[in-house]
C-alpha cells in the first residue's frame, strides 16, 4: 500500500490543510517517502508551526497562514483536509474533487479487509468491541480512525491479512469516494449542525460509508432509526447490491425478523433463526443502546466466520470506555456516573433510562441549535429530583422545566455543579453527569469535561 500511495502523491502539488495530529502525520509520511517533494501546509494559526519547529527547518515546505489561508485552494492537485475543518460557509465547487483524507486513501489503496463504523452515537464502543473480539481470536487487527490514531502512522503495520477496524466520523466521511468492505451504520440523530450547511448534509456524509461499496460488500444498518432507514433505502434503491450482504440489525421491528437480519425475540438475539446471544447474560456494558451495539458486533463476527463462543466471552467481559456511563465511585453514600460523551438528548435519555435510580442530573453545554423539546418533555415526566444546569443549553432547558417536584439549579461551573450535587443528592442514589450538549466553548472536548467532573467528585 505504501508504494501505491507514494506513487499517487508523487509529483503532485499537495496541500496539507490543517496542521493538527493528522496533518503532522501526513507531512511525516510524505517527507519520509518523497524526501525532495515540495509540501504546502495551510493553517489559520501560525502558532501551530511555531510549536512544531521541525517544519521551519524543512527547506522544501511552504507555509500558508492567517485569515486568507483558504484562498486559492483550486491551485492544488490534492488537498489533504483535516476532518474538523468545516467548509459550510465556503464555495468548494472549484476544488471539491481534490479534497482527500487519510481515510479515503486507505480505503482506495489498501487490500486489507476494512470494517467501517459510523453513527451519531456508539461508534467508539462498537468499533472497540469489534476490534477486541477479533484480537481475542488471535487475528492480525488494527483499530484506527476517529478513535484518535492517525492512519498514516500505522501504514507499515498493515499487511494484506490485517483486518482494519475504522471508527469513522461524519467529518471523515464527508468527501470520501470509497467505502469499507463492511460498513456499519448505527443511528442518525441531530448533531454537528454547526459544521454543515444543513442536517441533510450531515446525513449525506454518513451515507458515504456504504454509498461507494462494491456489489458484494456488506452493509449492516439499523432500520429502527426511521431517518436512517429512509436515507439508506433511498440509496439502495438506485444501486445493484447482493441482497444477502444487506443486514438489518433490529431490536424493535418484528417485521425484520427474517431475510438475513439480526433481531431479538424475547431474550434471544438471532441471525436468520440461528441463536447468537442471550441478552440476559451478565455483561459490563449496560442498556439497550449497548445491546444494539453488541448485535452489530455479533454480525461482524458471523461475517468473518469467528468462533461464536469466544465472541460471546469477549462481549460479556468488555469494559465500558471512559466517559460512557462510567462508574466514578461511591462517595459519602452518593453514587457518581460520568456520561460526558452524551452530547445529544437521545444519549442522555438512554443513559437515564438505563441507570434509573437517579437523584441528581447535571446537564448543559454548547448551544448548536439542537431541538430539546422531547428532552424537556422527558425530564418533566421523570422522577429526577434535582437538575443542575450548566450554560448555555442547561440554562435554556431550566427555563422550560414545568414539573414543580423538580429542583432546578442554574449555575456556571462544574465545580458549583458537583458541590450542589454533593449537598442535594439522596443517599445511596445516583448523581449523573449526562450533559446532552457539546463541550466546546467550555472545554477542549468531552474527555476534558468528564475528567474535570471525575476529579472534582473524587
Tell me what you see in this structure:
This protein is an alpha/beta fold and 458 residues long. It folds into three domains: 2-100, Rossmann fold, CATH 3.40.50.150; 103-317, Mur-like, catalytic domain (UDP-N-acetylmuramoyl-L-alanine:D-glutamate ligase); 326-457, Protein-Tyrosine Phosphatase, Chain A, CATH 3.90.190. It has 15 helices and 20 strands. The chain has helices at residues 2-9, 21-33, 47-51, 102-109, 123-135, 170-173, 199-211, 226-236, 288-304, 308-317, 345-355, 373-380, 393-398, 414-424, 446-457, and strands spanning 14-17, 39-43, 61-65, 78-81, 99-100, 113-118, 141-145, 163-167, 182-185, 218-221, 246-250, 262-265, 268-271, 274-278, 326-331, 334-338, 358-363, 386-389, 407-410, 430-433. Strands 7-8-6-9-10-11-12-13-14 form a nine-stranded mixed sheet, sandwiched between helices. Strands 15-16-20-17-18-19 form a six-stranded mixed sheet. Strands 3-2-1-4-5 form a five-stranded parallel sheet. Helix 5 (123-135) crosses helix 9, helix 7 packs across helix 8 (226-236) and helix 9 (288-304) packs antiparallel against helix 10 (308-317). The longest helix has 17 residues, at 288-304. The chain starts with a helix and ends with a helix.
Amino acid at each position: 500500500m505504501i508504494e501505491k500511495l507514494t506513487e499517487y502523491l508523487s509529483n503532485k502539488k499537495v496541500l496539507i490543510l490543517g496542521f493538527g495530529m493528522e496533518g503532522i502525520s501526513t507531512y511525516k509520511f510524505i517527507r519520509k517517502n518523497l524526501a525532495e517533494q515540495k509540501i504546502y501546509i495551510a493553517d489559520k494559526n501560525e502558532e501551530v508551526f511555531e510549536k512544531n519547529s521541525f517544519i521551519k527547518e524543512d527547506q522544501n515546505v511552504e507555509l500558508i497562514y492567517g485569515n486568507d489561508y483558504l484562498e486559492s485552494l483550486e491551485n492544488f492537485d490534492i488537498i489533504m483536509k483535516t476532518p474538523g475543518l468545516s467548509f459550510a460557509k465556503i464555495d468548494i465547487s472549484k476544488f471539491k474533487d481534490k479534497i482527500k483524507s487519510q481515510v479515503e486513501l486507505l480505503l482506495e489503496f489498501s487490500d486489507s479487509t476494512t470494517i467501517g463504523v459510523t453513527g451519531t452515537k456508539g461508534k467508539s464502543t462498537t468499533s472497540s468491541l469489534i476490534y477486541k473480539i477479533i484480537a481475542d481470536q488471535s487475528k492480525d487487527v488494527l483499530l484506527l480512525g476517529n478513535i484518535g490514531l492517525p492512519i498514516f502512522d500505522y501504514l507499515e503495520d498493515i499487511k494484506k491479512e490485517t483486518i482494519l477496524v475504522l471508527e469513522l466520523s461524519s467529518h471523515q466521511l464527508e468527501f470520501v469516494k470509497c467505502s469499507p468492505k463492511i460498513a456499519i451504520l448505527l443511528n442518525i440523530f441531530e448533531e454537528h449542525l454547526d459544521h454543515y450547511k444543513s442536517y441533510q448534509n450531515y446525513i449525506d456524509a454518513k451515507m458515504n460509508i456504504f454509498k461507494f461499496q462494491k456489489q458484494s460488500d456488506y452493509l449492516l444498518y439499523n432500520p429502527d432509526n426511521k431517518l436512517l432507514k429512509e436515507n439508506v433505502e433511498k440509496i439502495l434503491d438506485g444501486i445493484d447490491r447482493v441482497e444477502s450482504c444487506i443486514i438489518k440489525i433490529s431490536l424493535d421491528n418484528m417485521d425484520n425478523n427474517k431475510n438475513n437480519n439480526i433481531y431479538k425475540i424475547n431474550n434471544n438475539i438471532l441471525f436468520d433463526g440461528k441463536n447468537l446471544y442471550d441478552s440476559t447474560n451478565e455483561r459490563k456494558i449496560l442498556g439497550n443502546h449497548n445491546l444494539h451495539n453488541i448485535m452489530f458486533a455479533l454480525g461482524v463476527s458471523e461475517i468473518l466466520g469467528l468462533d461464536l463462543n469466544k465472541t460471546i466471552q469477549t462481549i460479556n467481559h468488555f469494559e465500558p470506555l471512559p466517559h460512557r456511563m462510567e462508574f466514578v465511585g461511591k462517595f459519602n453514600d452518593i453514587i457518581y456516573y460520568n456520561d460526558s460523551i452524551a452530547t445529544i438528548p437521545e444519549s442522555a435519555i438512554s443513559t437515564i433510562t438505563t441507570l434509573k435510580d437517579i437523584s441528581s442530573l447535571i446537564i448543559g453545554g454548547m448551544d448548536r441549535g439542537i431541538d430539546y423539546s422531547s428532552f424537556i418533555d422527558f425530564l418533566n415526566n421523570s422522577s429526577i429530583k434535582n437538575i443542575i444546569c450548566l450554560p448555555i443549553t442547561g440554562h435554556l432547558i431550566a427555563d422550560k422545566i414545568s414539573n414543580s417536584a423538580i429542583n432546578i439549579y442554574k449555575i456556571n461551573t462544574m465545580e458549583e455543579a458537583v458541590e450542589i450535587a454533593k449537598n442535594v443528592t439522596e443517599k445511596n442514589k445516583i448523581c449523573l453527569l449526562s450533559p446532552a450538549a457539546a463541550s466546546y466553548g467550555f472545554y477542549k472536548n468531552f474527555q476534558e469535561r468528564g475528567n474535570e467532573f471525575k476529579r472534582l467528585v473524587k
